[in-house]
Amino acid sequence: MSKAKTGIKRSALSEVVTREHTIHLHKSVFGTSFRKRTPRAVKAIREFAQKTMGTKDVRIDSQLNKALWARGVKAVPHRIRVRLSRRRNDSEDAAEKLYTYVTYVPVADFNGLQTQTVDE
After folding, report:
1. How far apart are CA 63 and CA 103, in angstroms?
2. Is pLDDT of 12 > 60?
C-alpha cells in the first residue's frame, strides 16, 4: 500500500501570477498544410497557456493575434515571446474562477531568454 501524501495542496486559485514565456511554435506547425499554419499556431498558444497556467479559459490579446498573422497564413514565426497572466474572473456567472490573458512581448533576439515571473 502507498502512503497518502501529507502536505499543503497548492491550487491555481490561490495564485494570481504573471510570467513571460518563449513558445517554440515551429514544433507545432511543422508539417502542417500552409492554409492551416497560423490557426494551428493560435491553438498551440491556447493549449500551452492552459497547460502552463492551469486554467481552461484562455483569452488572447489582439496584438498577439496581429503578430501571429503579420506575415500571413503561411509564414508563422518560429518562436514568440508571450506574457501569461492568470487573473480572477469578476463575472458572477462565470464557470471558471480564473482565466489566463496572453499578451505579446516584442523581442529582438531570443538567445538567453528564460521564463521570468513578472511583478505587476
Report:
1. 7
2. no
Q: How far is CA 77 from CA 65, 66, 68, in A?
A: 12, 12, 7
Closest CA to 104 of 4, 25, 36, 10: 25
Whole-angstrom distance, CA of residue 25 vs CA of residue 73? 14
H or E, element range at 43: helix 37-53
Q: Is 32 left (phi over 0), alpha (psi -120 to 50) or beta?
A: beta
- pLDDT, one tens digit per residue, over 63-96 is 999 999 999 999 999 999 999 999 999 888 888 8
| Rounded Cα gap, residues 82 and 60, in angstroms | 10
